[in-house]
Amino acid sequence: MAVDQPTTKKWTHDDLLALPDEGARYELIDAELYELPMPNEPHQRASRNLIILLLPAATQDGAEWYHAPTRVYLPPDGERGVEPDLLYFFPDGNTSRSYRGIEGAPDLVVEILSPSNPEHDEEDKRTWYAQAGVREYWIVSPEFRAVEVLVLEGGEYQTLVLARGEDPVTSTVFTELRFPAAAIFA
Fold first, then answer.
1. What is the domain extent for residue 172?
2. DSSP per position, the chain
3. Does the residue 128 lie in any domain?
4. How many structural domains compose the chain?
5. Residuewise pLDDT in 10s, the chain (186 residues)
């Protein structure tokens, strides 16, 4: 997802929650508010297909799942509020629901790249999710019809899968999961 320029005010979570609901989506990063652009059709198609592809594994394994717009407040201090496209967590872990959204590091986060600012997901969020302890991070590119599955090892992400076309997508979070990358973009 792309991020516009931050506002100049130092924002708090209470400020964010007090904003009128006018359809805009925001992320709160280091006390700065960023407005997220509206997702385009390839983004929405990939999101829909990923829900369909991942839902059976999530249900079978007992994971809770959410899709955007759902704010996630990341450790270590819970002050970074991001909106991943999809997130999955197991109820017996350190992630929980609150009035603000989801608190803690999900087990699996999926970000679908926006053509206007892919660096935000590929660099910034990759760093933040690793620091927070997100076990698995998927970066999905509708433009290149590819998915990269990253696994957290020793505090850094390592590529488990880089898939396109009929290449299989697999997961360490959902061990029985396997589907061709092309299914995300069908």
1. 38-184
2. ----PPPSS---HHHHHHS--SS-EEEEETTEEEEEPPP-HHHHHHHHHHHHHHHHHHHHHT-EEEESS--EEETTTS-EEE--SEEEE-TTSS-EEETTEEES--SEEEEEPPTT-HHIIIIIIHHHHHHHT-SEEEEEETTTTEEEEEEEETTEEEEEEEEETTPEEE-SSSTT-EEEGGGG--
3. yes
4. 1
5. 334 555 567 887 778 778 887 877 777 777 778 777 788 999 999 999 999 999 999 999 999 999 998 989 998 877 788 899 999 999 888 899 988 899 999 999 999 998 877 777 788 889 999 999 999 999 999 999 999 999 999 999 999 999 999 999 999 999 999 999 999 999
